[in-house]
Design brief:
By secondary structure, the protein is mainly alpha-helical. It has 9 helices and 4 strands, in the order ββααααααββααα.
C-alpha cells in the first residue's frame, strides 16, 4: 500500500522498517513494564530484548534462505540488498530468539519461565505491528478473493503482491488476532498465575492464529513437505504442542515433586 514512507531523491524511508522499529520498542516497553512489576532486573530485560531482536532478525533470514528454493537456484541473491531488506520467516526468528534467550537467561541466572512470561504479551503485539509493516510493503499477502474487505495493490513498489488483484488482507488478519492475544495475555499476566502460563498461552493462541491464517495466505512455492498443510502450519502445530506441554505437564511434574518430598 505504502512501501516508501518518505522519499527524497534516491533516498527513501521504508514503511516496513519504521513499523518494525515501533513493534520492537512497543514490545520492549511492555516487557520492561511487566518485568519491573515482577522484580526482574530492568537492565537484564532491556539487554535480553535487544539481543533477542538481533538473534531473531538473523534467524528469520537464515530460515528464509534455507527453506526458499529461490536461494538454492540463485545463491548470489543471498548477498543482495533486497535480501537484507526482506523480513524473513517469523517462525525462524522466534525459534532462534527463544533458543538464544534460554542460554542467555541461564548465564545471567534469570528465572526462565517468569522472564519469558514478561516478554509474551510484547511478542504478540510486536508481531501484530510488524504485520502492518508487511501490509504496507506488500509482502505476506493473501490469496485472491471477492470478499468486500479485499485489498488491491496498485503501487508498483509493492514487494511481491499482485497488482490490481483483490486479495485477502492476511497481514491485517494477523494484526487483529495478535492484538487481541496481547490484550488477553496482559490481563492474565497482571493477575496471579503460575510461572510459564503466559508464555504457554502465547504459544498456543499465536500458533492457532497462524495456523488458521495460513489457509488464506498466498505461497509462491509448492509445499516442500507435501500434503494439505504448509511448513508454517506444521511449525504452528509444534509451537502449540510446546504450549500445551507447559500448560498441562509442567504443573503435573511440580505436584509429583511435592509428593515425593512428603514421602
Amino acid at each position: 500500500m505504502l512501501p516508501k514512507l518518505i522519499q527524497i531523491g534516491g533516498f527513501y524511508l521504508p514503511t516496513y522498517g519504521v513499523l518494525v522499529a515501533i513493534a520492537f520498542l512497543t514490545a520492549l516497553w511492555l516487557a520492561g513494564k511487566l518485568g519491573r512489576a515482577w522484580a526482574i532486573n530492568r537492565d537484564a530485560i532491556l539487554n535480553l530484548g535487544v539481543y533477542c531482536a538481533l538473534a531473531g532478525i538473523v534467524g528469520a533470514k537464515l530460515f528464509m534462505i534455507v527453506v526458499d528454493p529461490y536461494y538454492r537456484n540463485e545463491p548470489k541473491q543471498i548477498f543482495t540488498f533486497s535480501t537484507l531488506q526482506s523480513a524473513g520467516i517469523w517462525y525462524g526468528g522466534l525459534i532462534t530468539a527463544l533458543l538464544f534467550a534460554y542460554f542467555y537467561m541461564r548465564r545471567e541466572k534469570l528465572p526462565f519461565l517468569k522472564t519469558s512470561d514478561a516478554f509474551a504479551p510484547g511478542l504478540a503485539i510486536g508481531h501484530g505491528i510488524g504485520r502492518l509493516g508487511c501490509f504496507a510493503a506488500g509482502c505476506c499477502y493473501g490469496n485472491p478473493t471477492s470478499l468486500p474487505w479485499a485489498v488491491t495493490y496498485t503501487n508498483p513498489d509493492a514487494n511481491g503482491a499482485p497488482l490490481n488483484t483483490p486479495v485477502h488482507p492476511t497481514q491485517i488478519y494477523e494484526f487483529v488476532l495478535e492484538t487481541i492475544i496481547c490484550l488477553f495475555l496482559y490481563r492474565r499476566a497482571v493477575r496471579p498465575h503460575k510461572d510459564g502460563q503466559i508464555l504457554a498461552l502465547y504459544l498456543v493462541l499465536s500458533g492457532i492464529a497462524r495456523f488458521g491464517v495460513e489457509f488464506l495466505r498466498h505461497h509462491d512455492d509448492a509445499n516442500p513437505l507435501g500434503g494439505p498443510l504448509t511448513m508454517e502450519q506444521w511449525i504452528s502445530l509444534a509451537v502449540i504442542a510446546v504450549g500445551v506441554y507447559l500448560v498441562t505437564l509442567k504443573p503435573v511434574a511440580a505436584r509429583q515433586q511435592v509428593a515425593e518430598r512428603r514421602k
